[in-house]
């Protein structure tokens, strides 16, 4: 699968095994603890082709997002494609993908990369992307990595 350069990318070294991090990022029951915008999630996150539906609340803006797991490499990579949402994201951004990449450093340390890929759908979206969206997504990624650290580090 060919993906463009990420619009936002953050990484962290987390003092936890790759297996423990993998179990957190593929557990639908943990998603609301990992992703700060998710209120509730249903579906599956551990099988390629799975759908997940997320009830969202981003700073008071509520809605739902439906995503499909289009690539899964156990203990290495997940790629989620945004299929639709009720908050207008899919109107502004095309081909939106949320990616986790895991790299084993040693038994107790793992490099975790969180990427968001998309193409602004129009001029207004390109301007918003340049002015604020990339930064906002980056801040959310920072929080996601902090949350994974809190859930997995001993």
Overview of the molecule:
With 154 residues, this protein is of the alpha+beta class. Helix content is 30%, strand content 45%. The protein has helices at 18-25, 31-34, 89-92, 123-152; strands at residues 8-14, 38-43, 51-58, 61-73, 77-85, 93-106, 109-120. Strands 1-7-6-5-4-3-2 form a seven-stranded antiparallel beta sheet. Strand 4 (61-73) and strand 5 form a beta hairpin. The longest helix is centred in the C-terminal third of the chain and has 30 residues, at 123-152. The protein is globular, with a radius of gyration of 15 Å. The protein starts with 7 loop residues before the first strand and ends with a helix. The relative contact order is 0.24.
Gap from first CA to last CA: 35 Å
Cα shape? globular
* Spans where pLDDT lies below 50 across 5 or more residues: none
Walk across the major sheet and give the strand order: 1-7-6-5-4-3-2
Give me the count of strands: 7
- Biggest beta-sheet profile: 7 strands, antiparallel
What fraction, in percent, of the residue positions are helical?
Answer: 25-40%
> In terms of structural class, how would the helical and strand content be classed?
alpha+beta
Tally the helices: what do you get?
Answer: 4
What is the mean predicted local confidence, pLDDT?
A: 94
* Secondary-structure element string: EHHEEEEHEEH
Q: From the alpha-carbon coordinates, what is the Rg to the nearest angstrom?
A: 15 Å
Share of β-strand residues: 35-45%
What is the topology?
Blueprint: E1 8-14, H1 18-25, H2 31-34, E2 38-43, E3 51-58, E4 61-73, E5 77-85, H3 89-92, E6 93-106, E7 109-120, H4 123-152
Antiparallel strand pairs: 1-7, 2-3, 3-4, 4-5, 5-6, 6-7
Helix pairs in contact: 1-4
